[in-house]
């Protein structure tokens, strides 16, 4: 029986996807990206799941695109493949629930790019980020020159992309790539605990909040502010907004119905 490339489990309202090619440090190929796409879509459709966590192993979130597979590719092979390019279309248009990258160990090349496609990154103390494609005679091809630059600024992005060096969790956090660093011990459990906290809020409101923060990267400030205002108004059409504010005033815990 062939190995399952992406493991999917659900804990409470949190869906957990685990990249599972441990022998090659979760190197990304067409098959694993297709499996990841399918599992993400399944969790998106599952109404009981409010937040998704994407993770790898303790040693590697993902050490990049599969170099052995790419080694012999021609221009037309790589042009036709477009495997993570296609994956991004799925993330962008179909996955509205928040996706957290839980990065332990290496997140390099396509692995760092995959983490950056998620809505936020939590890193274990042992995490290492980098875009080492320059060492292979190529450049990042899945957003590394674009998302990394937006996350950490031009100076550090240039440094990482042109030298191929790795950045540790501390540096990644102070540069703005990583939202929080958590201890190596029980790392995934701690991320799931945070995800569970989010997942107990209203699911439609989580989706709206994610959409608005992401809009900040695609719009002018004026357009972004106008968009946020409209979505803020829209929350007042939800039962969950009535429940959240009533619960505060009545000094009790809210009971969100996700409506
Ligand atoms: N593709 C294919 N196989 C990989 C891989 C990758 N990206 N990264 C690691 N592996 C394999 C190794 O070949 C090795 O396999 P064998 O046991 O069969 O020899 C196995 O995983 C374990 O790796 P190492 O023995 O190298 O482990 P290490 O602890 O000594 O080093 C590492 C870890 C620093 C991450 C090192 O493996 C490494 O440098 N990997 C490549 C990182 C890289 O260059 N990533 C960018 C890829 S290109 C890309 O991603 C392009 C893009 O933007 C789309």
UniProtKB/TrEMBL annotation:
Q: Which InterPro entries match?
A: ClpP/crotonase-like_dom_sf, Enoyl-CoA_hyd/isom_CS, Enoyl-CoA_hydra/iso, Enoyl-CoA_hydra_C
Question: Which keywords does the record carry?
Answer: Fatty acid metabolism, Lipid metabolism, Lyase
Q: Which SUPFAM superfamilies match?
A: ClpP/crotonase
The enzyme's E.C. designation = 4.2.1.17
- Reaction catalyzed: a (3S)-3-hydroxyacyl-CoA = a (2E)-enoyl-CoA + H2O; a 4-saturated-(3S)-3-hydroxyacyl-CoA = a (3E)-enoyl-CoA + H2O
Q: Which top EC class is given?
A: lyase
Question: Which GO terms of type biological process are on file?
Answer: fatty acid beta-oxidation
What GO molecular function annotation could you give as one example from this UniProt entry? 3-hydroxyacyl-CoA dehydratase activity
Pfam families linked to this entry? ECH_1
Job of this protein: Could possibly oxidize fatty acids using specific components.
Q: What is stated as this protein's family in its record? A: Belongs to the enoyl-CoA hydratase/isomerase family.
Q: What is this protein called?
A: enoyl-CoA hydratase
User: Which species is this record about?
Assistant: Pelistega indica
């Amino acid at each position: 029986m062939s190995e399952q490339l992406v493991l999917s489990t659900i804990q409470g309202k949190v869906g957990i996807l685990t990249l599972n090619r441990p022998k090659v440090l979760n190197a990304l190929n067409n098959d694993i990206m297709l499996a990841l796409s399918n599992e993400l879509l399944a969790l998106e459709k599952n109404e009981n799941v409010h937040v998704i966590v994407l993770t790898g192993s303790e040693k590697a979130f993902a050490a990049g695109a599969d170099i052995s597979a790419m080694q012999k590719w021609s221009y037309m092979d790589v042009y036709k493949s477009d495997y993570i390019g296609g994956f991004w279309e799925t993330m962008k248009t179909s996955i509205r629930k928040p996706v957290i990258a839980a990065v332990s160990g290496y997140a390099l090349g396509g692995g760092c790019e995959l983490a950056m496609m998620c809505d936020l990154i939590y890193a274990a103390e042992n995490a290492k980020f980098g875009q080492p494609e320059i060492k292979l005679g190529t450049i990042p091809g899945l957003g590394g020159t674009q998302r990394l630059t937006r996350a950490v600024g031009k100076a550090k992005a240039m440094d990482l992309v042109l030298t191929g060096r790795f950045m540790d969790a501390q540096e990644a956090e102070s540069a703005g790539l990583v939202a929080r660093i958590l201890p190596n011990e029980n790392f995934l459990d701690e991320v799931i605990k945070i995800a569970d906290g989010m997942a107990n809020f209203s699911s439609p409101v989580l989706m709206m909040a994610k959409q608005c923060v992401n809009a900040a990267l695609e719009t002018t400030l004026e357009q972004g502010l106008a968009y946020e205002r409209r979505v803020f108004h829209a929350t007042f059409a939800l039962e969950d907004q009535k429940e959240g504010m009533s619960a505060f005033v009545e000094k009790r815990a809210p009971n969100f119905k996700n409506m």
